[in-house]
Amino acid sequence: MLKTLLRSTALAAAIAFAPAAALTLAATAPAMAQAQGGDIVVTYKDDIATLDPAIGYDWQNWSIIKSLFSRLMDYTPGTPDLVPSLAESFTVSPDGLTYTFKLRKGVKFSNGRVVVPADVKYSIERAVDPKTQGPGAGFFGAIAGFDDFAAGKATGLAGIETPDTETVVFKLSRPDATFLHVLAINFASIVPKEAVEAAAGDFGKKPVGSGTFVLKDWVIGQKLVFARNPDYFVKGVPHIDSFTIEIGQEPLVALLRLQKGEVDIAGDGIPPAKFLEISKSPDAKDLIVDGQQLHTGYVTLNTKIKPFDNVKVRQALNMAINKERLVRIVNGRATPANQPLPPAMPGYDTAYKGYAYDVAKAKALLKEAGYADGFSTVLYSTNTDPQPRIAQAIQQDLAAVGVKAEIKALAQSNVIAAGGTEGEAPMIWSGGMAWIADFPDPSNFYGPILGCAGAVQGGWNWSWYCNEDLQKRAVAADSMSDPSKSAERVEAWKKIFVDVMADAPWIPVFNERRVVAKSKRMGGEPNIYVDPTRVINYDAIFVKP
Amino acid sequence: MVLLLARRLTQAALILLGVAAITFVLLYALPADPAVLLAGRNATPQTVANIRHQLGLDLPLPVQFWNYIVHLLQGDLGRSFNQKTAVAPLILARLPATLTLMAAGIAIEVMIGLTLGVIAAVRRDGAIDRLVMTLSFVGVSTPQFLVALLLLYVFAATLGWFPMSGYGTPAHLVLPAFTLGILGAGWYARIVRSAMIDVLGQDYVRTAHAKGVPAARVVLRHALPNALLPVIAMIGIDIGQFMSGAVVVEAVFGWPGIGQLAWQAIQQVDIPIIMGVTLVSALAIVLGNLLADLIAPFIDPRIRAG
């Protein structure tokens, strides 16, 4: 189930992170004996779609692109903590509208050329350029000149300046406190123009970057071989010498091979059918990595469709769902949720208890709202296992309070289309589609999925929820660009999400954890196999001596 | 002969055009909008519109089809939506694996099927016949994944005789080819048996027996060649079938064939790849049948005369 859920994240997927400074790595994990060397084998069922950082946006290529390229900003492995990477240092102007970065000196692309500020400008313009057809353009919306460039009225982003050979200046059209995160996501990876042009549209198969690894060989349909970049700008990173990704490997077979030691990481996780067996085996603790990801699964209640325009109805339904039971359907690989943010996200409110499961109270509230006899509605879900089963369990819970929900299990794109069409889908179970944070900042859980801007045709705010007051507070919070105000900002977001829950546009259901299977020889904490911003952190994992 | 070939090739071209047209209309009539999938969840409607425009999805369907056919005639199968790279090399890269598995699978099913079919026909209504027929029945009705997993578990995971998964050496080929072969052999056994029974009842066979020709020679030299025609036709069909991908077998054994590519493309609504694979498969089916028709006269001179 994990497999299907995650596969479908071609859209919804993506978590972000990159090679962090070895210093921070060493500082955070002094106890780890990180042996150098080793060649490992990783398996996936599906092809690696592309390694072009302006295009790749699924959970398989996300990790790999992270390691092939470097970005101005990155994260300490296993954490949501930002650190400068390709940038040596940076400053933010008091108004939050100007970001100035000094590049590290002498960093080289794997083609041997030194990285210069013009590469930064080129790479980000390339990600935004409509001709690239990249899914990440929208992240850079705060850069001055974005609208003109995105609409084809300008030939570049006016807001990126390269005054000298080591400085890049970003001018923003509005304050964006998440801007440093934006520069750490894959779409902000720095690429050399000459290599992109030489690849003639096939950069995704012939990537050139300045990351920890380089692509050595790609046999279409079979395997990809990545070798350590000997020129990487942080000494001692990465730890392994190479990793080979074998594709077309059935998860079940990959697991058998892993148990025999032929495979080091089964990238698709553990199939539900094998999960209990493996988790009860004596080797379980060496083989299974269970990590939190920045994910929340939820049911949207469309505030523009009766009776969900009534807040009491929405609150009642929040009390009607037995989340513990839903967690059991996914083999316990999730934690019941009571708020939009996942626990690993800054701004998660540990004090908030949400709406407890209480059928009697739910019925009473429905009666108060004038629906003593319940009502009929429609619940949308994607059609890959286990999503329809989860939808059925939700359906049963709803029936217990008198709400008759008809299930519409459709292909992912059709559910997304229905969600983004006003007045179309009363309820949607988000499983298989949403929402995994692109970067570890609470705003990422608001704007597109709970904010007014997302409540548009083709948008992802499937509750069509728009609270003007909260919207103002969200804009205010995202204007606090001063890094010293970040605690205050997180506090502001925490309150926003608690207030969202008072309006109950969602039923938060659970936070899915990610399970990866690894061989016994692989070392490191779970948080570098399920890194909150990059899934598998190839820079940090190591083979035990 | 040349005339026949010309006629059949023209037919083949028309069939392919028809297949292309039908697949095209079906795929583009799908409610799923590839542009939305490509654009991702952060896309503005403007981005989606841009992508749709660049992919040519905003053009009228007949124009899109015309463009596709024009490119197709130049050997260009278009670019994958998802992988953002040309489709033809993706398919070509997987052809060797598909062809190898196809050849090995057919060889195994024909060898097993012929042997069992002949024995069953000769020992008609005996215990061996009934055993063979039962086995072939089991063979044709067993799901591929069951046999594949069973072989994998016994011969790879437990005994370790063969690698569990992958491609490149003859050892890798054994289990996937046998999965296809064992299952397909059932069909061949049944067809060969009934064709043989038919032939064995004919006058010339009785004459041969009467002349004192050894029984084995009668069966193998006199009767069998005449029973081969349906087998040739069947191989023609199998070529087409296996070329379109042995999806299940490829999945279980990590065999990098066309089936895997097709399956992924379907899940991702990657229309250019689906189109490409469909056309290649259709071509294989047409060519397989053509090949069978061309070979038949050499096996049976009566067809040449007719």
Strand content of chain B: under 5%
- Helices and strands of chain B: which structural class? mainly alpha
Low-confidence stretches of chain B: none
**Class inferred from helices and paired strands of chain A:** alpha+beta
Radius of gyration of chain B: 24 Å
Distance between the termini of chain A: 34 Å
Average pLDDT score of chain A: 89
Helix amount of chain A: 25-40%
- Hey, which two chains have the biggest interface? A-B, 54 and 53 residues
Shape of chain B: globular
Tell me the fraction of residues in β-strands of chain A, as a range: 15-25%
User: Which fold name fills CATH's third level, the topology of the largest domain in chain B?
Assistant: MetI-like fold
Radius of gyration of chain A: 23 Å
The profile of the biggest β sheet of chain B is:
none
Number of strands of chain A: 20
Largest sheet of chain A: 12 strands, mixed
Q: Secondary-structure element sequence of chain B?
A: HHHHHHHHHHHHHHH
Signal peptide (chain A): 1-33
Domain Solute-binding protein family (chain A): 82-454
Pfam families (chain A): SBP_bac_5
Keywords (chain A): Signal
